[in-house]
Structures are given as C-alpha cells and as structure tokens.
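A protein record in our archive is deliberately plain, so that people and models can read it alike. The record that follows is passed on verbatim for readers who wish to inspect the format.
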Amino acid sequence: MRIMVTAHSIAPSSGGLRVGILGICEGLAGRGHQVTLITTDADGRETLDIPLGVPTDHHGVQIYYYPVQLSVLGSGLSIPLARALKLHVQQSDVVLIHSLYQFMSTTAAHYCRRHNVPYILRPHGTLDPFLVYRRRWLLKWSYIKIFEERNFHHAALVQYSSGMEEAMTGRFVKSQSNGLVIPEGIDLKDFATLPLRGAFRAKYPEMDGKSLVLFLGRFHQKKGLELLVGAFARVAKRCPSAHLVLIGSGDRSYVERITQMVGDSGLAHRSTITGQLDEADKLAALADADLFVLPSFGENFGIAVVEAMACGLPVLVSDKVGIWRDVAKSEAGIVTHCDSNEISDAIETLVDDPGLRTTLGRNGRRLVETEFNMDRMAERMEIEYLKLCVSA
C-alpha cells in the first residue's frame, strides 16, 4: 500500500506525540508498505532547522517538512503545505490523518474526499473534555460543528488508541459505526539493551543513593504535575530516600510555574528538573529510575507509560490515563484517582517495597511485549487498511 500520514508537528519537544507517530510510520514501513509522512517545521513557537519540501528518509519512512507561513491559534497555515497535500493524496491508496483543529488535518480530509481516497481520522486525545473545555472551548466547539463533524462523517475509519478515547470522542461527535481501537506500540529493539544503571545518576550528584520517582513527558496542565509536586511534598517528609525527577519541556510560562511550585514546596534539594533530554539520556533516566508516575487529568493512551514498562519500571498512573485498565489487570503498577493524597500514599508504597517494584516491573514488561509492541500495532493497522483499499 501507498500510505500517507499527516501530522502538524513531530518536533522532539512534542514528546509522546512524536514517538507515537513515528512508531506508526516505522511499523507500517517495516511491513513493506510505502509510507510518506507530511508534517511542518513547527516546534512550539520556534521552527525546526530542517530541509523543506524535500524527502528525508527515517527508517524507511519518507518525511516531508513544509513551512508554517502563518500560525493562527496553534494551527499552521501554509500554501506550500496545501499544494503538497493535494499532490500526495492523489498518489496514495489510503491516508491517516492525525489530530484535529488543524489546517493540515482539515485540508487533507478535503482532498481525500475530492479525489475519493479513503482516509482514517486519528483524534489522538484532542476531544478530551479536559482539553476542550479548558481553553477556547467556544472556538473548538464551532470548529467541530463546521469542519470536524463532516470530517468524521466521511472518514472510512476513526482510529482510537484506547476505549477510553473512543468514549470521550462520543461526547462531541455523533456516534460512529466505523470506530476502531488499536493501541499504540513501541519498537522493543530500542529497549532490548538498557544503559548501565548509574549513568544518568552520575550527571546529577544529588541523586546518589536515592529512590528516583520519575515523570517524563510534556509539561502541560493535563499531565497533573501540580498533583505530583503536591503529593511528593508529603512523601519527602516521610521518605528521606525519595527524590523527584521531572524530565520534559513545554510552554515556558508553565515550566516556570512548576519550577516555582517545586521551590515553594521546599523540594529544591529533593528534586531535579532536567528539561528536554535526547533519546540516549532519556533511556538512561528510565534505566536509573525506581518508579514512573503519570497522574494525568486526561490521556488518550500514555506512550510514556509503555516506554517505562518496557524498561521494567513499575508505573503509577491515574484512572484518566487511557491504558489504566491494562495496567491494573496486568498488575504492572498502581492506579489512583487524580487525588494528591492517593498519589502520595502510592508513591510511598512503591518506594518502601523493592520486592513489589520488581514484581510490577516484570509484569509491565510482559504486558508491553504482548500488547503494546510496534509489530502487533502495525499488523492490525495493515489488516484494516487493506480492507479499505479493496473496497475503494
């Protein structure tokens, strides 16, 4: 198949979004399909230093970057991008459109309908009520009514990362009979050989001899960072060995807000905020951590949780993370409500019980191997996409 994938941005700063999109593309390319990824040079408020309009090979995936000529409310408008979408749609057998509310996604869906090319919508959590109602909800609701309802109606499939995401989407878009749940997957080869334990700690002397409680992801209100900092302030009083590690980047004002909260909570010497790390250092951090925490208010899947489990880490997640039921059923971690007291109690339980951490971590690794690996994800997508090509 000739598969075109669209995504507004795959900048390193996008965190799990980049991992998920590239994982899909690499998985399909690995099964012998011709995969083209169309994206932009957007990197938050900055732009990537990358060749524009020419193919860049990434593990068998042809990636084309196009300039954002005008940014309006987070959507990148671009004439070169529109021209490229029109051309590549006509050369594709099927198109996977990632995310909503974007010039990219709306334009791609338009050209798919015009040229009778089946397309799959992947909302990727953009219809999470926490996000819809938090900012510019009236504008989002208008966009849904004017554009997205039509895009959903004509989509050959709507692909969700979890059953939770499918349920959330139904609150804003009329029930679809073409919904498909395919969990995301990671390339297990990337986690087959982990860095030697201690390599990450060696860069941060304050971590020596400590039990590392790790958050790794985009700094955003929905991630529950305020909950985590508040919970850890209580943990710090009772667990002298615990040390909080926050890895990631985000809007500067929000990063500063979390940094200030850490200081005001008296955690300056009990925590480390590293900023964005490259892949090698991120893997070293996962290898050195003792447990992983993601207390999100909304998460359509949780690719960072999967990466942590692949490294044998026990995970602590809220019941708003898309795969929390899988974590609970497989006994790969602890699930809490978005409650600071529950989170602090769970952290203490894990910090104080190395045996429990080992058992949960082993179960999590097994869960990833069986359910959340790239090959399994790509195989399921291949089967469903081939059906669309036959019926088109």
